[in-house]
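// run 5 | inverse folding | seed 20
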């Protein structure tokens, strides 16, 4: 996780006429470090079948696969871990069901929530939405928390920070400079005309961290 810099979150509803495995394959070719299977809005069977396809792709390239919300699905497809929101099952339950080696991430937007998640055993934190986003439902108090909040959370905890929410290749360097170890995106890659090129641009930008940004 300490080597993650670019993280893609899948969502077929914003990928046009392209299938999620096609997007994932392109993102892997572009240099993505980790894939999260989200796919809100489809039934459990379809999500499972899609997950099996994506797991095959990520395993072939030694890319970690994280499942959004669903601990049971993560176990069923032998994913590397799960990412939990504030209203999902607790971190302790994920650890018990998936094992000590599983990667368990947690969404946070405040310093206090971040500290609680780390105390509960989170391996990394998803922090955001950094900028306002429309790719997922985010409450007003969590939509556009800004770079100062990212910095405050990064200073308060000792686990990797994955920033998410409205991030682009243009803004990625500033987000990294604020303290994020990694940037996560949905639309920037999934909705791009050329997902491979978009991933490569984001990966390159994510490495351009400077104290002057």
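// decoded
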């Amino acid at each position: 996780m300490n080597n993650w810099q670019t993280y893609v979150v899948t969502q077929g509803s914003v990928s046009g006429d392209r299938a999620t495995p096609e997007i994932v394959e392109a993102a892997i070719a572009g240099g993505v470090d980790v894939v999260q299977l989200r796919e809100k809005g489809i039934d459990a069977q379809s999500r499972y079948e899609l997950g099996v396809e994506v797991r095959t792709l990520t395993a072939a390239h030694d890319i970690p696969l994280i499942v959004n919300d669903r601990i049971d699905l993560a176990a069923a497809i032998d994913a590397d871990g799960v990412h939990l929101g504030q209203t999902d099952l607790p971190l302790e339950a994920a650890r018990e069901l998936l094992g000590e080696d599983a990667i368990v991430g947690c969404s946070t937007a405040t310093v206090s929530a971040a500290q609680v998640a780390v105390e509960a055993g989170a391996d990394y934190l998803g922090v955001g939405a950094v900028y306002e986003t429309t790719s997922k439902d985010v409450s007003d108090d969590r939509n556009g928390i800004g770079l100062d909040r990212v910095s405050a959370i990064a200073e308060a905890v000792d686990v990797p920070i994955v920033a998410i929410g409205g991030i682009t290749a243009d803004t990625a360097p500033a987000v990294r400079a604020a303290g994020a170890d990694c940037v996560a995106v949905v639309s920037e890659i999934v909705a791009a005309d050329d997902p491979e090129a978009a991933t490569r641009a984001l990966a390159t930008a994510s490495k351009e961290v400077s104290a002057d940004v």
